[in-house]
Task: structure prediction
Amino acid sequence: MLDDHPALKIRNLMDTTLQKAEKGAIIHGHYRYIDMYGSPKRPILVSMLRDPVDRFESHFYFMRNGDQDMSKEFVLKRLSPGMALPNETLDDCIEKDRGDCTSSLLRNMYVTSFCGYDPRCSEYPSFALEEAKRNVDKFLVIGVMEEYDLSMAVFEKLLPETFGGAAKIYEENKEHSMEKSKTNYKKLPSPKTYSILKQRMKYDYAFYDYVKKRLHKVAKKLGIGNCSGS
Result:
């Protein structure tokens, strides 16, 4: 049934949540892009990206070791057949062509997510990249973790009622937050593994670089920071 489509389910959830919240609401999660045109209360969209290989590496080791919030025993139950074994490293994953490191969905996570639910988003990464770029303009702003301070400054300037003081609060709690979310074990990938992953994630890197340049443009327009991006 049409009502069972993931995009409609999430849109209905957002519509219901926003209509019930008289003073507004913050909806946070890992969702693909959804066009909210025609909704009674259209949400303001913001997001944050991380360097694709760094994100992939962190997720790989989190799924085998957990963190302070999720135990190793809990996350190991979520490993699917064909994925790298619990004791294998990211280098092993690449060398042995494990499912984690060959899946097109994992390699093209950003372009697929920001493209949306069109079947072509999952099947054709070049299409997904161009569609994702178009959808970026529907977000108020997308920050990047590698320029967190700049991103927070832009967020605060554009949405002071939501992000006012966020940078100060983050700075005061940074060490605790980083320790709490730190993966229990990680091993840096070899230069060869890094190079292979970066090539496999070329579409995600193209999108990441596009978003970063847009962030610099927005920051420059707002008179924030030292922005060299064009």
The beta strands are 46-49, 141-144. The chain has one domain: 49-222. Residues 49-222 form a domain with the Rossmann fold fold (CATH 3.40.50.300).
